[in-house]
């Protein structure tokens, strides 16, 4: 295990994450009005970004080779349906992950 | 003082269960890639960003370049810019506590503190500080626990990576159910799929983000009209 690489990577992630949290407080003082376009993007970006992150997680799924992304499809469907039904974040994640693990370890 | 602690514990209870569970998931996953309790706790304490830490496991175990890691962090955590914008007023006058409050502003802490939902006789600054600190402690504890569990109980972890997918799918579904305006979510989905097909799995995040921003800005007049009608 390359410790230098690990420490550098964690530092990069930590510094950038903190910077993103601090920037608004540095740029927009509470006295000035925040530009409308920022407020607008702030409102709608989270929805688009979450969709992007879902695709990011599934980016390596190969639909042309067996099992044709079936475990992922079933796993995602279980999470979505369970969440629509119970709206319990933890339950959706736990059951969805357990299903997927069973599918890749036993079924496919 | 006692009522302050009691209020904070009750308010943060849902976050506690969530953070311990997701933290354990992170710890197990990170240790399944061969990283022990120290990197896990370091990441939890210093990065303290759930979804980014899950993404970081892929980056670090896959040997991503520091530039890729930096850009991915920017993209995944860009939403924090907007949390900050809406907390400008609330953290005004927090004094010495302010830097920590800003550092610890996660999605969940934001969701608890963006509404002033606590008894009036409690000191606002102390309340904000304790909510932020308790959530941070829950998260570090979860990640440490997961790391210990992951290395102590050897079990077949194949497929456990899916808990990250499940986390994002859950948030996506929750967002979808909580609004009538689905255009931004659909834009994100389409943009990501189009860019994935064009640029490939290793290089589609930046182009997706640009495409999303352009699409949202172009659709601004229309989305705002919808908003006023709905």
Cα radius of gyration of chain A in angstroms = 20 Å
Q: What structural class do helix, strand and pairing data of chain B support?
A: mainly alpha
Bulk shape of chain A: extended
Strand content of chain A: under 5%
Alpha-carbon distance between the two ends of chain A: 32 Å
The major pleated sheet of chain A works out as: none
Low-confidence stretches of chain B: none
Number of continuous helical runs of chain A:
4
Strand content of chain B: under 5%
Whole-number tally of structural domains of chain B:
2
- Helical segment count of chain B: 12
The tally of domains of chain A stands at 1
Major β-sheet profile of chain B: none
Radius of gyration of chain B: 19 Å
**Helix and strand sequence of chain A:** HHHH
Please give the alpha-carbon distance between the first and last residues of chain B: 44 Å
Can you tell me the residue ranges of chain A where pLDDT is under 50 for at least 5 consecutive residues? none
> How many beta-strand runs of chain B?
0
Query: Structural class of the secondary elements of chain A?
Result: mainly alpha
Order of helices and strands of chain B: HHHHHHHHHHHH
Jot down its keywords.
heterodimer, A: mainly alpha, B: 230 residues, 12 helices
């Amino acid at each position: 295990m390359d410790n230098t690489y690990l420490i550098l990577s964690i530092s990069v992630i930590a510094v950038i994450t903190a910077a993103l949290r601090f920037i608004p407080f540095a740029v927009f003082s509470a006295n000035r009005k925040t530009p409308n376009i920022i407020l607008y993007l702030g409102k709608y970006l989270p929805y688009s970004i979450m969709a992007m992150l879902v695709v990011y997680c599934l980016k390596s799924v190969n639909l042309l080779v067996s099992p044709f992304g079936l475990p992922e499809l079933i796993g995602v469907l279980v999470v979505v349906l369970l969440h629509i039904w119970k709206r319990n974040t933890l339950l959706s994640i736990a059951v969805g992950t357990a299903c997927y693990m069973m599918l890749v370890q036993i079924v496919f | 003082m006692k009522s302050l602690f009691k209020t904070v514990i009750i308010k943060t209870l849902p976050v506690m269960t969530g953070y311990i569970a997701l933290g354990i998931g992170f710890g197990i996953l990170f240790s399944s890639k061969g990283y022990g309790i120290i990197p896990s706790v370091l990441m939890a304490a210093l990065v303290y960003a759930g979804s980014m830490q899950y993404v970081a496991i892929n980056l670090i175990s896959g040997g991503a370049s520091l530039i890729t890691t930096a850009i991915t962090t920017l993209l995944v955590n860009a939403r924090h810019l907007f949390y900050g914008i809406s907390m400008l007023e609330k953290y005004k006058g927090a004094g010495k506590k302010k830097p920590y409050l800003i550092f610890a502003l996660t999605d969940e802490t934001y969701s608890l503190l963006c509404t002033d939902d606590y008894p009036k006789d409690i000191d606002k600054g102390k309340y904000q500080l304790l909510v932020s600190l308790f959530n941070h402690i829950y998260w570090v504890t979860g990640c440490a626990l997961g790391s210990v569990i992951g290395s102590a109980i050897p079990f077949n972890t194949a497929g456990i990576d899916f808990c990250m997918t499940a986390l994002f799918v859950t948030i996506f579904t929750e967002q979808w159910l909580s609004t009538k305006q689905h255009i931004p979510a659909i834009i994100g989905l389409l943009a990501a799929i189009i860019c994935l097909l064009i640029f490939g799995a290793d290089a589609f995040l930046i182009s997706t983000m640009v495409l999303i921003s352009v699409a949202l800005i172009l659709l601004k007049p229309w989305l705002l009209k919808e908003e006023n009608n709905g």
